[in-house]
Design brief:
The chain has about 450 residues and is of the alpha+beta class. It folds into three domains: about 5-235, Rossmann fold, CATH 3.40.50.620; about 255-320, no CATH class; about 325-450, no CATH class. The chain has helices at about 5-10, 15-25, 45-55, 70-85, 105-125, 135-150, 155, 175-185, 200-215, 220-250, 260-265, 270-280, 285-295, 320-325, 345-350, 395-400, 405-410, and strands at about 35-40, 60-65, 90-95, 130, 165, 165-170, 250-255, 260, 300, 305-310, 315-320, 330, 340-345, 360-365, 375, 385, 395, 415, 420-425, 430, 445-450.
């Protein structure tokens, strides 16, 4: 593997020009963009705000006062607010109160979710495309160690992304010491969060106890770490490309639902299985093992996908909560008595899966039907009298006899009337009891044209 040269990256020192270069690496024409800066009042975020201001960029500032450190929290807010006032920068403040339900535990996670929700609201209201945070190289090292302890794989070891869904982190190539030196040189006022000196949380413990000892081992430790991150990111990109090529080879079809060849994926390494299925929310080791041991008919669910085992296929069905929760569709409330023939095209509800998206036309005697006319999913005990058969048949038995796939069974709609009687199973069979006959005066035509 050929690695990109990291000499330019390693030789960087924090100055306005080098910062601007990093920002230009993240997005084109940064001077034309609009930003929201997350500023806590600490050295890193105040330096970030100072440089943005000196570069003449179009930005606003957001600050969250968590009220966790008494007067110190208020002093943090004041430093940020004063900076904005002096430089005529729009300032957004969120003050935490009792309504925010601060938890006894997991305060860091709660605080993160709260502030990012606040930031998103501001961005939408003010039309600010990019959120900018002041994460730096020491944060990268701490995150690397945390992820190393979690067995998070190459993605976790590759560090914090510099541009992650329009969250920019232009200070990632600069160390904490460089940021302090810059603040001292330019006389930038900032606040020290003394709670960071306590090793109460894992990150603080790593920052206060582990990192100083690592830095003592080698004068160039951070520079070498930065270089290693560059190598890891290039390796990650190479692996991702290979995984995509394998996924393309084992994909049987990819319309609305993705069909993967189960046997071909099963012979791949555990890494390949994990990386492919993780994209769809299946990333637990034991769950992935069960997927390949399960028989036809088994289903697994992630937040966004349903995975169905169908013989030699893994069917990945994107969950659309609105559609999945839709149990009934009203087609028409009644029949226009001024017409003798009314037509209804129902292509939209059945267009999502090819197996049931077939052309058909059913003619009903409208006077035999109780309105409204509806589409609904199968219920326990449903029966109908299919054309071409004698007697009645359970809908569940009809599904079985037709040898429909599991996915098709989930998607099929039954055509029913106002008395909840089954008029047909779309698009397969019409109930003969309500079909047009020689004595029919008013015809209702239900059809699908592909």
């Amino acid at each position: 593997m050929v690695y990109l040269c990291t000499k330019e990256i390693l030789s960087l020192m924090l100055e306005k020009s080098t910062f601007k270069k990093q920002l230009e690496n993240l997005i084109p024409f940064p001077e034309n963009q609009h930003y929201l800066l997350a500023v806590s009042g600490g050295a890193d975020s105040m330096v970030l705000a100072h440089i943005f201001n000196n570069l003449g960029l179009n930005f606003q500032i957001a600050h969250v006062n968590y009220k966790l450190r008494g007067e110190d929290s208020n002093e943090d807010q004041k430093v940020v607010e004063d900076f904005c006032c002096e430089n005529k920068i729009k300032f957004h403040l969120y003050e935490v109160s009792e309504v925010d339900n601060k938890p006894e535990n997991s305060i860091q996670l709660w605080a993160r979710e709260l502030r990012y929700h606040f930031f998103k609201q501001i961005q939408e209201k003010e039309n600010l495309e990019f959120l900018v945070t002041a994460h730096h190289l020491n944060d990268q090292l701490e995150t690397f160690i945390i992820n190393l302890s979690k067995a998070s794989g190459i993605k976790g070891l590759s560090g914090i992304p510099a541009n992650d869904h329009k969250i920019l982190r232009p200070l990632l190539h600069f160390s904490k010491d460089e940021i302090y030196d810059f603040a001292k040189k330019h006389k930038i006022e900032y606040r020290e969060d003394l709670s960071n000196k306590k090793s109460d949380y894992l990150r603080n413990k790593i920052r206060n106890e582990m990192v100083p000892k690592l830095l003592e081992t080698n004068n160039h430790f951070l520079e070498n770490f930065k270089k290693s991150l560059s190598y890891l990111n290039q390796t990650k990109d190479f692996v991702r490309q290979q995984i995509e090529e394998i996924e393309n080879r084992i994909t049987i079809s990819n319309n609305e639902n993705k069909f993967l060849d189960k046997n071909k994926l099963n012979i791949e390494s555990d890494l390949v299985k994990f990386e492919i299925l993780k994209k769809y929310g299946f990333e637990k080791e034991e769950e992935i093992k069960k997927i390949f041991k399960s028989e036809t008919g088994s289903s697994f669910f992630s937040n966004d996908f349903q995975l169905i085992i169908n013989r030699n296929e893994l069917i990945l069905n994107k969950l659309n909560q609105k559609k999945e929760n839709q149990k009934e569709i009203i087609l028409t409330q009644g029949f226009d008595l001024n017409q003798n023939n009314v037509e209804l095209n129902i292509s939209d509800p059945i267009s999502s899966i090819e197996e049931i998206n077939k052309t058909f036309q059913w003619d009903f005697d409208a006077e035999k039907i109780t309105f409204p006319l509806k589409l609904r999913k199968k219920k326990e005990g449903d029966v109908f009298y299919p054309t071409g058969f004698s007697g009645k048949k359970k809908v569940s038995k009809f599904f079985k006899d037709e040898k429909l796939s599991i996915l098709a069974k989930q998607k099929i709609w039954l055509l029913t009337d106002g008395n909840n009687r089954v008029l047909g199973i779309i698009p397969f069979r019409q109930d003969r009891r309500y079909a047009k006959d020689e004595g029919t005066k008013r015809i209702l035509t239900i059809f699908n044209e592909k």
